């Protein structure tokens, strides 16, 4: 049979530097590197390479590098190399193309087309090293007004909420899609930072219940791992309606990732595919959603806030308005550039809208309807830096979710092969030999370093704006200016162009 596919990458070995230690052979989970004992030669099958950099990073002689292949197709603006290769793949397999991580396509990134305003003379900047700076935030429903009793105590009822020392949380990544060591690292980092991590739809291992005060448990359409103890183990419950990388599509964890521990946690048989339906079969209206919200609150004695997570789609503002009236305490919106463990490639690359536009539209709609204080607002899906966090909050978010940056901090090299289960860095895998490559203590420390660094930068940027609290930044779109945007884009974002 003719192989029409050529490798995307080539492994280049410097024979003068190579000491034939065979570290590359032992470390590659994809069997790219092979040692021929008879000929005493190391060679590489580049067709298997996913460009994870494991061999390059660990080669003691620095004898390896991975390059983009220079094999080319005849140029065509219509039938690009990627399109041709995708057609070859589907002609070979007859299957749906699967991809991991966020879309690599060059859609506009609106974070990069917004600039932050700065204070000068009449409204001086603030030095965060010498002056108080508050980045703590609270997520949940806020009372419209505060009433006091005659003795000065507060009479107004306080709703269940989440207290975040930093306006950054770790987004939903399920046990099964990522390893147990990765989950441990996220939990430990969340506890150390005074924030939260999300279990995703895979349930929660009992040994992680101790981190419950910093855990958000998720209820998805498949209801994997959902039981009363699980619901009560976390500080909040998230109902997953949609995910930014695959709006309108359910979840799928291959049976190869369902080992004994994942099986027990998810409450499904070993080796069976874990498939979440696209819809929740008990939710076909806002009224149905309200029933689930109230049911979860009943199950937890009304002590925990309920989050509803949706994907960013064209009518997201209207959907959010309905969710705010369903009894939910927090709305989480996931943009189409968000990452995923596995999604149909065509869905990931073509469905949904950017989180920046969705966030601005939702915040505007809720304010116009006078219900913005009825819910907290969290956004995710390609929040890549502290600057993105600041811009998100200025557009109206209370806090953000991050996932891909968290994986990168733990050692991920964005090789986009999470769905294969052969993660060379021990993150997106259940193979015991690969899982142990990720040290949860080291990974947790790196996560703490990342968020701590972002927190310092957030304070610096706020100080430059003359703002000393995150609450004063929230929804303060006057502090943003657009560059290279159309008037329609500026109107949706609710900001002015630079120079105005």
From TrEMBL:
Residue stretches making up the 4Fe-4S ferredoxin-type domain: 9-38, 40-69
GO BP: any one term: glutamate biosynthetic process
PROSITE patterns recorded: 4FE4S_FER_1, 4FE4S_FER_2
Pfam family, one: Glu_synthase
Record carries keyword Iron-sulfur: yes
Keywords: 4Fe-4S, Amino-acid biosynthesis, Glutamate biosynthesis, Iron, Iron-sulfur, Metal-binding, Oxidoreductase
Entry EC no(s): 1.4.1.13
GO molecular function: 4 iron, 4 sulfur cluster binding; glutamate synthase (NADPH) activity; metal ion binding
Annotated [4Fe-4S] cluster 1 binding sites: 18, 21, 24, 59
Keyword Iron assigned: yes
Record field: catalytic activity: 2 L-glutamate + NADP(+) = L-glutamine + 2-oxoglutarate + NADPH + H(+)
PANTHER family, per database record: ARCHAEAL-TYPE GLUTAMATE SYNTHASE [NADPH]
Name assigned to this protein: glutamate synthase (NADPH)
Organism encoding this protein: Candidatus Protoclostridium stercorigallinarum
